[in-house]
Amino acid sequence: MPRGDKRAEVNGYIMIWVPLTHRFASMIKKRTANGGYILEHRLTMATHLGRPLDSQEVVHHKDHCKDNNELSNLELYTSHADHMRLHPPKPGLTPPRCPYPRAHSTWGYRMHGCRCDICVTAMQAKRKKDGDRRRKQAHA
Hints:
Blueprint: E1 6-8, E2 14-19, E3 30-31, E4 35-39, H1 40-49, E5 58-61, E6 74-77, H2 80-85, H3 117-139
Antiparallel strand pairs: 1-2, 2-4, 3-4, 5-6
């Protein structure tokens, strides 16, 4: 595969092939035998910053156009939760969910090390509800 080969993904993002010796090879999303693909907008931001991006960092397209990867159109957020504050839920839609659902058991918001705002708020509400229920049982 030639260096810098571009391809469009089904979801509209553009990926660029880089060799395993590339300085941002740690950001490879789809690995091949001697290299892999990196999302172009993440590569653009990493090149601007001069360092690889952490997996938690999110690069946002200001104009919501996934193939416009000009630096002036990109913003960096330190976490998915920070990025989701930019996109508040619309009225009537389901409440926000944790951006890391694999961190939880299948029966609710039980935290397994996840400290995103959504999970912390849900756990606080659950603990308050459980505490209120216990107080009512104690007084009955």
